[in-house]
UniProtKB/TrEMBL annotation:
PANTHER family linked: PROTEIN ABCI7, CHLOROPLASTIC (PTHR43575:SF1)
The protein, known as: Fe-S cluster assembly protein SufD
InterPro entries: Fe-S_cluster_assembly_SufBD (IPR055346), SUF_FeS_clus_asmbl_SufBD_core (IPR000825), SUF_FeS_clus_asmbl_SufBD_sf (IPR037284), SUF_FeS_clus_asmbl_SufD (IPR011542)
Family affiliation: Belongs to the iron-sulfur cluster assembly SufBD family.
Database matches in Pfam families: SUFBD_core
Region (Disordered): 1-49
Domain SUF system FeS cluster assembly SufBD core span(s) in chain numbering: 142-370
Organism placement in taxonomy: Bacteria, Bacillati, Actinomycetota, Actinomycetes, Micrococcales
Natural source organism: Microbacterium awajiense
Length: 401
């Protein structure tokens, strides 16, 4: 008698279990997620995978289409870069210098964006350059029915200092990879600002490496869009490197804002500070924050902390907050995480009202005080003023609803 066996189906995002090659378990830690430049290695997400289970898959399906999006009138976004031409470097083809030095897709959207975007937008800060004014990269969507894939490189050469703002507006179905390289001794700030129209879809992966004695301050600021998922990861590779990752979101009815944050302490004596804050108002307003920190076996002397705090302003809004910490060495200075989601503090409101401040104004002051902690860390006065105005408009719209 001949016996035949059939191998079990491979579930995307799974790996063989240690007690048998035929058993599969989901990937549980961020460091174990598969990476590949080939979209076929991932398959189409179903929403059951650990990295997609909080995302509204049906609303972002255009970014899973492995089709050419770069030619002629079909271009989904426009880049206004004339004013920063002196900081642009030609990056033609997938084998161009720097491209892929840090970035390797960890999901199908990133792999498709890599494949379909042949030429990168490469912003470089020269060695020893210290720039006071921010380098602003306007990214303007050309319509919700337009689909675009992009690869953006931000490179800070040794001992440089600059702020780069990726300013998104308009509307599109936009899949974006951002590769950030901070060379020895450089100090770089990157702000990803999402001011999309309400029908935009933005799925992005930011991957950064910070070298010896260098620092990266990274912001994700989101006010607009239907679904905005910006997932930043930072590898603190060099000794003495520092990473600061901050986020600010204000979600209205029907909006879904998501960030899956990853910090990998790889080199010795590295420091990380992660703080994301969000406000939500309106029926079905949704935010998702997942924070993963890995302190590697060689990352002695690490000091790391991550926190997420959410303020729910109305019934029907929901915030998911999931911090995770993985430590492979005991020789560290400190490591911790925190998460909190709640409504207004009644004691704060009572305190303000007891001093003659009306309830609506008291609520406004509480929200502003809560969110401006992130705004004030950006260090660009003009942008900070714009963000305060944006918060005020969100609050006024909520009060009028």
């Amino acid at each position: 008698m001949t016996t035949t066996t059939q191998a079990p189906a491979t579930v995307p995002g799974s790996r063989p279990h240690s007690d048998g090659a035929g058993a599969f378990v989901p990937v549980q830690t961020r460091s174990d997620r598969p990476r590949s430049y080939d979209p076929a290695d991932f398959g189409a997400p179903t929403g059951r995978e650990v990295n997609w289970k909080h995302t509204p898959i049906d609303r972002i399906r255009p970014v899973f289409d492995d089709v050419d999006t770069e030619t002629g009138d079909d271009l989904g976004v426009r880049y206004d870069v004339d004013e920063i031409a002196d900081h642009l470097v030609e990056s033609t083809g997938h084998e161009a210098a720097v491209r892929g030095e840090v970035f390797e897709p960890e999901d199908v959207a990133g792999a498709i964006a890599w494949k379909r975007c042949a030429n990168a937008l490469h912003v470089r800060i020269a060695a020893d350059e210290e720039r006071d004014d921010p380098i602003v990269v306007p990214i303007i969507g050309q319509g919700a029915d337009r689909h675009a894939n992009a690869h953006v490189i931000v490179e800070a050469l040794p001992h440089s200092q600059a702020t780069v703002i990726l300013d998104h507006s308009g509307s599109a179905a936009y899949a974006q990879n951002v590769e950030i390289v901070v060379r020895d001794g450089a100090r770089l700030t990157v702000v990803s600002l999402q001011r999309w129209d309400d029908d935009a879809v933005h799925v992005a992966a930011h991957q950064a490496r910070v070298d010896r004695d260098a620092s990266l301050t990274h912001f994700v600021v989101t006010f607009g869009g239907s679904v905005v998922r910006v997932n930043p990861s930072v590898e603190l590779a060099g000794a003495g490197s520092q990473g600061r990752m901050y986020g600010l979101t204000f979600a209205d009815s029907g909006q879904h804002f998501e960030s899956q944050v990853y910090v990998h302490h790889k080199g010795p004596h590295t420091t990380a500070d992660v703080l994301y804050k969000g406000a939500l108002q309106g029926e079905s307003a949704r935010s998702v924050w997942i924070g993963d920190v890995l302190i590697g076996s060689d990352a002695v002397g690490t000091d790391s902390y991550e926190a997420n705090r959410n303020l729910v302003l109305t019934d029907g809004a929901r915030a998911d907050s999931i911090p995770n910490l993985e430590i492979e060495t005991g020789d560290i200075i400190g490591a911790g995480h925190a998460s909190a989601t709640g409504r207004f503090d009644d004691e704060q409101l009572f305190y303000l009202q007891a001093r003659g401040i009306a309830e609506d104004e008291a609520r406004r002051l509480v929200v502003l005080g809560f969110l401006t902690e992130i705004v004030q860390r950006i260090g660009v006065p003009e942008l900070e003023a714009q963000l305060i105005d944006a918060i005020e408009r969100e609050l006024a719209a909520g009060a009028a609803a």
